[in-house]
Amino acid sequence: MPRYYITTAIDYANSNPHSGTAYEKIGADAIARWKRLQGYDVHFLMGMDEHSMNVEKKAVAAGMDPEAYCDGMEPKFTDLWKALHISNDDFIRTTQKRHIAGATEFFRRCHAKGDIYKAKYVGLYCVGCEAYLKDSDLVDGRCRNHNTPPQKLEEENWFFRLSKYTDAVRRHIEENPEFVQPEIRRNEVLNVVRDGLEDISISRSTFKFGIPLPCDPSHVMYVWFDALINYISAVGFPDDPARFERLWPADLHVIGKDITRFHCALWPGMLLSAGLPLPKSVWGHGWVHYKGQKMSKSTGHLLDPWDVIEPHGADALRYFLLREIAWDRDGDFTWDSFTLRYNADLANDLGNLLHRTLNMMHRFSAGTVQAASEPDPKDGALAAHLEGCFDGVSAAMDRLALSEALERIWDSVRRTNQYIEENAPWTLNKQGRTARVQTVMANLATAMEYLSVLLHPFIPQSAGRIREQLGLDPAPGALSRAFVLRAPGGKVREGTVLFPRIETREPKGN
Ligand SMILES: [Zn+2]
């Protein structure tokens, strides 16, 4: 079985996850689930980034030890990921022994290569980015990402000789179009790399909550140098070479567009220095805006994912974000657009299709799949449409065009509703054409099963409920292009409402 190793960014432990954080995990989860359906041996990694000045400050302010503070933050993330049915196989914390061992060994290799040196650095530092800013990072003297004024810092730090890898990184990006995706991110990174990469400061002596440098324990590793290594320390570097060999290089790092540069310029430079292979691909997704504005931790303009999950279920949030916000650009969440999508797509198109199908199966077919003894060209047309949908979804997923894949699936949901209209089973039933009614029912039951497999990566819980109501195992079953009629004899359950219609209800305090 071919393997597929996918990661998301690890999140800072100093604030709660919001819907933008969730969007990244949901998208990566849809990809991981699709790959599993395709037969890949998937390894899906997520985690929490703990060492930093900000975490130390937050902990001190709360009168806590930083590690205890992070222990308290972990469930804020993992409870949400569980509620959203994120299927990650591992969750790494950068305070874990395996990560400290990995980062320490990695540093040693770069140091032995002559790529780490000590020097004085003066620059403008953004605490939010945990990085020194360049002129191009500033808008009116403020950080472009955080809209806060940077601090002038002067420090004697350890540096990584990233400049040495400028040409190698540039060539790698130029020669491997899939390395940085989507295209817009690739162009941004290429511009940065073509301007020449600067050496970067990778240590701090101003705080203690970090991994001490093997060559100078009075310094701890700077956050990016520490954090990026999680992708390899989680899969056996350096203590389990067989596992590491099997899983590395990663097939896909899913990250936000604001940190593309760290993943596509710094990370490859670090790996080249340490003599390790580069990841195959990095995808920098866009941002989820909320009511037309960027979400921001500092202003508190945030959509709390629980505000959607608690009243409407995880799949409602998963569906909206994946359908409405194209995976390669920014998009917007408003309560009106959410309600509209939910009612039109989930409650009407999909929910009604299932409900009608099950009702008619009980009325016309004794709640059982019967033999399809009276076929009609309309059946073949539906089957051909669904097989075309399979091809469209597969092609879209190959390009990681997640919203396009959902568009294709909904096209087929509507086409299946149309199949009901054009066959009018209630009329056939009145005419006493039992064999034809039962054939239509067998086709419908098969179409619903077919759709449930395609829906699984996006709305896994609902796909499982659809299958249960159809009398099937809730696990998605095999991915197969061929539309093969269900064998007679299978019983279906009474239909229950999958997605009750909703009124716009914006939570108080938003
Ligand atoms: Zn910033």
Provide a brief overview of the structure.
By secondary structure, the protein is α/β, with parallel strands linked by helices.
Kindly describe this structure:
The strands form 5 sheets. Strands 1, 2, 3, 4, 10, 15 and 16 form a 7-stranded parallel sheet that branches. A 4-stranded antiparallel sheet has the order 6-5-9-11. The protein contains 18 helices and 19 strands. It has a domain at 334-510: Isoleucyl-tRNA Synthetase, Domain 1 (Orthogonal Bundle). The longest helix is centred in the last third of the chain and has 31 residues, at 335-365. With 510 residues, the chain is an alpha/beta fold. The radius of gyration is 26 Å and the shape is elongated. The structure holds zinc ion. Zinc ion (ZN) binds at residues 126, 128-129, 143, 145-146.
Write the layout of secondary structure elements.
Layout: E1 3-8, E2 11-12, H1 19-37, E3 41-49, H2 53-61, H3 66-83, E4 90-93, H4 97-112, E5 116-126, E6 131-133, E7 138-139, E8 142-143, E9 151-160, H5 166-175, E10 180-181, H6 183-194, E11 200-201, E12 203-204, E13 212-213, E14 216-221, H7 223-228, H8 230-233, H9 241-247, E15 252-256, H10 260-274, E16 282-285, E17 288-290, E18 293-294, H11 305-312, H12 314-324, E19 331-333, H13 335-365, H14 377-398, H15 402-423, H16 425-430, H17 434-455, H18 460-469
Parallel strand pairs: 1-3, 1-15, 2-3, 3-4, 10-16, 15-16, 17-19
Antiparallel strand pairs: 5-6, 5-9, 7-8, 9-11, 12-14, 13-14, 17-18
Helix pairs in contact: 2-3, 5-6, 5-10, 6-10, 11-12, 12-13, 13-15, 13-17, 14-15, 14-17, 15-17, 17-18
This protein binds zinc ion.
Residues 126, 128-129, 143, 145-146 line the site of zinc ion.
